[in-house]
Amino acid sequence: MKIFVPGRVCLFGEHSDWAGGYRRINAEIEKGYALISGTNQGIYAEVEPHPTALVLTSTTPEGKVIGPYEIPMEPKALLEEAQKGGFWSYIAGVAYQIQTHYHVRGLVINNTHTDMPMKKGLSSSAAICVLTARAFNRVYDLKMTTRGEMEMAYLGEIMTPSRCGRMDQGCAFGNRPVLMTFDGEYLDTQELQVKDSLYFVLVDLQAQKDTMEILARLNRSYPFASNDTERGVQELLGPTNKRIIHEAVDALQRADAQRLGELMIEAQALFDRYATPACPEELTAPVLHKVLNYEPLKPHIWGGKGVGSQGDGTAQFIARSEADQQAVVEIIERELGLPCLKLSLSGGPKVRKAVIPAAGFGTRLFPASKATKKELFPIVDRDGIAKPAILLIVEEALKAGLDEVIIIVQQDDLDDFRRFFNVQVSIENYNKLPRHFQDYAKWLLDIGRKVRFVTQTAQEGFGHAVYCAREAVGDEPFLLMLGDHIYRSESDRSCAKQLVDAFNQHGISVVGLRGTPESMIGSFGTVMGYWTDDDQTLLNITEFAEKPTVDYARASLRVNGLADDEYLTLFGQYIIKPQLFDYLEEHIKNNVRERGEFQLTSALDRLRQEDGFLGLMIDGNRFDIGLPEYYLKTLADYAK
Predict the structure, then answer these.
(1) Residues 6+ apart with CB under 8 A from 82
(2) Is 612 found in the same domain as 524?
(3) Residue at which a domain ends, from 302, 329, 345
(4) Which of 22, 58, 202, 588 is deepest in the core (most CB within 10 A)?
């Protein structure tokens, strides 16, 4: 299993994590707020289970292999290693905490390469800790959330001589901006969505700073200030920081690079004014200020500031464009001789395509399915127009803002689908239509230009059908909808749009969910997980079960907040990352079948294990047309 964890850069709010922690002693201190993001660089590793030990190998940036280094998976040995300090100590500290909380064996961790600078304010040690927690979580399927991995990494790092803050493990969220709030021991995280791309440059100042001394001096201002300098530090890291952070969050979400630059300049000036007097030896930072004020950079940047604990460690700039980002890197590396890293924030990969499997025979609707495909059965919509079911599903996808719909069909049915979406009715029949239906006929052809067909040569299961769309989908996330279900939203957003919005915000595969009585779960995929919000709308999924028995569901699939006889089942819409195709390919090549076919659920569960999976309670209804009695009910209810 391969794992990547990025570095973490604090865009705004350095030192606020530990400062907010003092609220447990002095409630008058303001909460801490920080705006962070993962970097484009980080730590890469390959991991696998080991029966008795941690077996560790690391490759330096110069290509030198260090190790293997073996630590017995025993509490005493792990604790001793953690307290030694150094690269292995972080892994040992997390392993100690994992073993304390879970029953696990060991791991082989091969750190194949690292492309981020160490000890430069980018939380390289935290990245190692998060990587270790994630490795245990995925290899042993411990069902930890991202927050759980983050907490375990923090507990592991404080077992070492490192004095990290709660902010550092934010790298667990990946290359997404996150607002963190620190209130005593309580930590809240909010993932943010960036409207358009933003371009940053991080500069390794290649100078010296004593982070421990900076922290020691600033901590003297807490929990109670006794002089003007200490009151200034509390004001800086408290109310002033709160104002700047919330203005920065607003600018970030609007992708207002100019305003972010102005806030960076203001934040640095305030830090120099109020924090530097508490530790002038380290925070005067001549190298940092030389780079921040370097005149040739001014035409290419909106602003800049220090990173992390500040001092002469790392600087950051926000560039005016992607071209300016490259210009900043070239100027600094050429004229100042300092290495740079690019950091680009965007909304992540967009969902542009939908996949609809429609290649089944329709056994349960025979003999009607011999006359026409069940996906072409008519449904009367709310507007009184009779539409084939497939059109309603395609419309659902297009209303969500997608660009293309891929329909998987049998070769023998291809002409029927193409005739509907791509061929105009004859001129004789067209002239017989009322004017509004003539307009509708033209509109159908417009829709047809966004529809693409893929054939499934053999019907070997739902997973096999989805795999047939691999080439058409490419390397991007996609919306999957069932061909024998239609959907009706109860809000101003279509059901599919609700899923798209959730994926864009969190960057994790997401499936629609609905509550289902116990008596019906044997007919549906069912999930287990933990709510991520108080409204109980978003679930961190910890297990997919395909059509479970009632006994298994009672023992393993209960979700807090539901009635005793209610479970969460799949709604019939998914947004899935393209890694799914790799897992399906493995099943097909190795002939791994379930109930004689290649299924989707086991591949979804592996994607959950290796990358995470969310479940969204859909504000809407699903209508099934796959059985005669369901089809009859849909005809009666859908148009209401």
Answers:
(1) 89, 90, 92, 93, 96, 156, 159, 160
(2) yes
(3) 345
(4) 202
Residues, the chain: 640
Q: What's the confidence (pLDDT) of residue 436?
A: 85
What pLDDT does residue 195 have? 80
CATH number, domain of 186, equals 3.30.230.10
Distances (CA, A) of 417 to 18, 51, 448, 528: 62, 54, 10, 37
CA distances from 627 to 112, 265, 364, 640 (A): 52, 64, 6, 20
Q: Is 101 helix (H, G, I), strand (E, B) or coil?
A: helix
* Mean pLDDT of the region 233-262: 96
Q: What is the 3-state secondary structure (H, E, C) of 108-155?
A: EEEEEEECCCCCCCCCHHHHHHHHHHHHHHHHCCCCCCHHHHHHHHHH
| Residue where a domain terminates, one of 282, 315, 345 | 345
pTM reported for the whole predicted model: 0.76
Record the tokens describing residue 216, joined without a space: 């020691």
Tokens at 260, concatenated: 């972010």
Contact 88, 109 (CB under 8 A): no
In this structure, what CATH number is given to the domain that contains residue 561? 3.90.550.10
Dist. CA 478–CA 369, nearest whole Å: 28
Distance between CA 581 and CA 470 in Å, rounded?
6
Report d(CA 628, CA 433) in Å as an integer: 31
Query: Do 58 and 86 contact (CB within 8 A), yes or no?
Result: no
Q: Taking all residues of the chain, what is their mean pLDDT, rounded to a whole number?
A: 91
Residues 310 and 431 in one domain: no
C-beta of residue 381 within 8 angstroms of C-beta of residue 424:
no
Cα 237 from Cα 15, distance rounded (Å) = 7
505 and 409 in a single domain? The answer is: yes
Asked if residue 19 is part of any domain, the answer here is no
Let me know whether 42 and 97 are in one domain.
yes
Residues 185 and 53 in one domain: yes
Residue 408 falls inside a structural domain? yes
Query: Tens of pLDDT along 386-407?
Result: 899 999 999 999 999 999 999 9
What domain range includes position 205?
A: 198-345
Give the whole-angstrom CA distance, residue 229 versus residue 235.
Answer: 10
